[in-house]
């Protein structure tokens, strides 16, 4: 099978699997004082260091969670501590194209949430952000800004560094959901200038069920736990750590951190070939966000006159895995909120599929996908395809 759905989840890297199997063969609780417990603690702390290195943060500032959804819910709360100072936030300012775990998973009262529009290419309108932040600052309200680094559906990269500068100029706190970035683009918290960052294990070749909230400063944290209990993870996310998943996350983080730009270049080569073939062969097909900087592994293609669900099933039967819009929203009826925010009409958005590549992708995958599309799309459209 050809798996072109790395933005939904990545296959487990062999090194992550090996690290997990080692842990599964042991029996310690990371909070126990005996040797078994200390061994488990050692695994968790080594993974913490690896994840910290991946994003350029102090390891003391990492809270392991069950994934990015939990990390986003943990940090998107009005009561925060920044560099040791309590900072109560009055409003959450976010973008129209955020992941549902931000849009629906935050812990603010609904009336205190504001959404900034994006342009036709899916990039945040910075002037609109500035206006909103200036308004809140003038009224004495502190904002928490949450902006994703790269969109999971389109791969469009947001101007996070510029947004952080604006946020801080207006006394706001800045959070970034960077889930889709590691291994695909450079990622450094200091460069981004954010106070908090979210990442997820299963988007970087680690297992599902682990993620992290990272703070830029060891004394920055949400003040209200997501889960209260035994005090694990700085008292913010109680419960016995999932040591095996965290170990796999750490192993995947080590590989991503070592990759530099080469892997991103390889993915870009594959993605560009795939995209070029599609646009050339299929009349009326169109790439969302084509005009701006995007992740090198992602393409969201709108096929005129097709239903994405039908195309996804036909490709599945041809042994090619892709998503309609985002996997997270594919179970529900209705077009993607991301494409809608970009001004794509319902009919066109209904024909969008996302192809996303990753560490396991190779030239042959692209060949197979192109051949499958060449068989399937004309059949669904019931008209001949242009010769390649
Ligand atoms: N944010 C973004 C941008 C994502 O793509 C995803 C996964 N689809 C999440 C958050 C949620 O991550 P997790 O599955 O680890 O909860």
UniProtKB/TrEMBL annotation:
E.C. number: 2.8.1.7
Organism domain of life: Bacteria
Keywords, ordered alphabetically: Iron, Iron-sulfur, Metal-binding, Pyridoxal phosphate, Transferase
Record domain Aminotransferase class V: where: 2-367
Catalytic activity: (sulfur carrier)-H + L-cysteine = (sulfur carrier)-SH + L-alanine
SUPFAM superfamilies: PLP-dependent transferases
Keyword Methyltransferase: no
GO terms for MF: cysteine desulfurase activity; iron-sulfur cluster binding; metal ion binding
InterPro entries: Aminotrans_V_dom, Aminotrans_V_PyrdxlP_BS, Cysteine_dSase, PyrdxlP-dep_Trfase, PyrdxlP-dep_Trfase_major, PyrdxlP-dep_Trfase_small
EC primary class: transferase
Necessary cofactors: pyridoxal 5'-phosphate
Keyword Lyase: no
Annotated family: Belongs to the class-V pyridoxal-phosphate-dependent aminotransferase family. NifS/IscS subfamily.
Function: Catalyzes the removal of elemental sulfur atoms from cysteine to produce alanine. Seems to participate in the biosynthesis of the nitrogenase metalloclusters by providing the inorganic sulfur required for the Fe-S core formation.
Protein name from the UniProt record: Cysteine desulfurase
Organism: Aquabacter spiritensis
